[in-house]
Amino acid sequence: MKNEFIYKRKSVREFKDIQVPMEAIQEMIKEATQAPSGKNAQNWHFVVVRNKEKIEKMAEAVYEKGRELSNNLDEKTASNFMKMLKYYTVFKNAPTVVMIFSSKYESSGKDILMLNGASNEEVEKLESVKPGVQNIGAAMENLLLSAANMGYGGCYMTGPAFASDKMCEVIAFNKEGYNFSCLTPIGIPLKENINSPKRKSLDEVITIIE
Fold first, then answer.
1. 157 contacts 180 by C-beta, under 8 angstroms
2. What InterPro entries does this protein's entry cite (predicted)?
């Protein structure tokens, strides 16, 4: 039997000009915090931005940083990068933006590997797992599923990360030990029927070992 609430989640980038009740946002975040996290670290912090002017200024900060970075690129690379900025700033269309910040999380076993004289390659392979970031991903997915189940939409975004310092300046947020991980716009979808990109078949993504 399908868990229908999972299929309600779509990547929503256009929203109605209607604010989301704070009670609904709080419920989404409460359900986000039910996500699993390694060592029960719960190494997340949620920042809710509901001021439309600040949301727009955050998007402007991403464009500004993007233009600054493109000045150091060759023409073709700069052009392709600048084209992507419209996708990195779609959150400007939403009445609410939820940002998730993460604190440092050490990979389990790293010290043991190093004490055993592990190679740099072995240590890098362990750290590539990035468990601290996986905790944030689990929380974000819970948040988006919760939002969709309540009739709202969002979009998991990491693209604006290159301008995280500038975005934080706009909202005057600084929590010691925490860095920006991702954000999602939250609002009522402008369109009712949103198609999801085709998913790979199960045969492509499953290996069964018996």
1. no
2. Nitroreductase (IPR029479), Nitroreductase-like (IPR000415), Nitroreductase/BluB (IPR050627)
